[in-house]
Amino acid sequence: MPFAEPRHVERTEDCLFYHSIELPGLGLVEGLWDLREVADDYLGGIDVQGKRVLDVGTASGFLTFTLERKGAEVISFDIGDDANYDFVPYADPSYDIEALRESARKRVQDLRNSYWLAHRLLASKARAVYGDVYDLPADLPQLDVVLFGMILGHLRDPFAALHAAARLTPPTIVITNQTAEHDIGSGPYAHFMPTPENREPNAWWGLSVGCLTQMLDVLGYDVVDVRSLWPLCLAEGRVGKEHCSSIVAKRR
Ligand SMILES: C[S@@+](CC[C@H](N)C(=O)[O-])C[C@H]1O[C@@H](n2cnc3c(N)ncnc32)[C@H](O)[C@@H]1O
What is the third-level CATH fold of 12-251? Predict the structure, then answer.
């Protein structure tokens, strides 16, 4: 099995917290997103008691630990040591993609540290796997649910990542993504987000609910529920609630 060795992490100074999370002995540690109020809807409202869930793009692991509390056995997945993120290849010579890759390699380790610190303090039994989202390990134990929380828009090829999950034949796929507030029921639209002006390094796609539904349909999954929710973003310069949709799909 491809599971990672747990890391012993003591200090929050060694961590980058993506999620706000309550930790025994430390209290509330603030991250870039606070999902606590919307966690049930973020997870599509599904019953995970006794289910094995793959949390794709676990970051600091808030969703993993929440799923565990709800009775799931969780495998947390995130990017490998190479931190080979899909950075947008802007042509402008002043755009230094190598510097981005270099800083990503450090950030990935700090992010992982936040997961393992929380994992230890919460006495989590979740197992972690690191690797390539387009090539999810085929030797994982059979999964009941694959969760894609806020990751597909950061990938150059979100359909390939969904295909990699569908190959593992989970009965349920849950996608939670930022979406326009009124797009439920809209057409299958993908908004290509990078421009030479915004230089977004890895915000690739705004995907409509209709687009994600159609991708899932192609892969043999029917959408059975869509929820609208407003998680709290705490990132500098954009503090506030932002609209998301969670989509639950069942294998035909
Ligand atoms: C925006 S965060 C979402 C965190 C969490 N799933 C949530 O919904 O709150 C995206 C996560 O996906 C991971 N990620 C991004 N690109 C990836 C890739 N190509 N392979 C594996 N993980 C990736 C990042 O490291 C990060 O942990």
Answer: Rossmann fold (3.40.50)
Dist. CA 47 → ligand 1 center (Å): 23
The closest residue, in CA terms, to atom 23 on ligand 1 is 79
- The CA 78 to ligand 1 mean position distance, Å, reads 6
Give the atom of ligand 1 at the shortest distance from the alpha carbon of 55: 6
Q: Whose C-alpha lies nearest to ligand 1, atom 9?
A: 149
| Sequence ranges of the domains in the chain | 12-251
The predicted-structure confidence for 58-109, as pLDDT tens digits, reads as follows 999 999 999 999 999 999 999 999 989 999 999 999 999 999 999 999 999 9
Judged on CB neighbours under 10 Å (0-12, 13-18, 19+), 238 is: exposed
**19 secondary structure, DSSP code:** B
Q: How far is CA 183 from CA 63, 158, 188, 218, in A?
A: 25, 19, 10, 20
Degrees, nearest 5: CA angle 36-41-46: 120
Confidence of residue 181 (pLDDT cuts 50, 70, 90): confident
Q: Which helix (H) or strand (E) holds 122?
A: none
